[in-house]
Amino acid sequence: MGQYRLQRLNDQLRDEISQLILRGQVKDPRVSTFLSVNRVEITSDLAYAKVYVSSFLPDGELKHGVDGLNAAAGFIQREIAKKLRIRQFPKLQFIVDQGMKEGFKMVQKLNALEKESEEREKAKTSDSEKDSD
Fold first, then answer.
1. pLDDT at 78
2. Helix (H) or strand (E) holding 113
3. Low-confidence residues of the chain, pLDDT below 50?
4. Torsion angles phi and psi, residue 52, rounded to 5
5. What are the CA-CA distances from residue 109 to residues 15, 102, 104, 127 (Å)?
6. Which residues contact 117 (CB under 8 A, 6 or more apart)?
7. How far apart are CA 42 and CA 46, in angstroms?
8. What Cα–Cα distance (Å) separates residue 133 from each residue in 12, 21, 94, 112, 119?
9. pLDDT tens digits for range 92-112
10. What count of other Cβ atoms lies within 10 Å of the Cβ of residue 22?
11. Closest by CA position to 63, among listed 32, 20, 103, 88
12. What is the pLDDT at residue 98?
């Protein structure tokens, strides 16, 4: 399958799974509407698809949510296969993706460093003004 077509299928699966979660059609109580599907990676033979899920929920709740999605994978596959016309629908495997949380933490650290740097600059300028007086 062509790389461009595979990428389009990845994006379409991501959108469809996100819509199922958002609309609350996955009835498993562990699956929260706060779960976010970041990306989907389908193998070139369309046999398997890794679905990376993240959230700003605590890690334990995120893990339970992914377990719920793995338990409901058959239902999700069936619902999406009704909409998509592909010869073989991939088996879905949901995986916890910590990238969004780690990126957010990194931005917070960078902001704290920037604030600290600004405070040092202010302290240096105020010290130099006092020395000149």
1. 92
2. helix 99-132
3. none
4. -90, 120
5. 31, 11, 9, 27
6. none
7. 6
8. 67, 65, 66, 32, 21
9. 999 998 888 888 889 999 999
10. 14
11. 32
12. 83
The strand pair at 91-96 and 48-54 is best described as: parallel
pTM of the complete model: 0.77
- Measure CA 25 to chain center: 19
What's the rounded Cα separation, in Å, for the pair 18 and 69? 11
d(Cα 75, Cα 27) in Å, to the nearest integer? 10
Buried b (16+ CB within 10 A) or exposed e, 74-109: eebbebbeeeeeeeebbebebeebeeebeeeeeeee
Give pLDDT, residue 63. 92
pLDDT computed for residue 10 by the predictor? 93
What is the distance between the alpha carbons of residues 129 and 88, in angstroms, rounded to a whole number?
A: 73
At residue 105, what is the residue type? K
- Specify the DSSP class assigned to residue 39: E
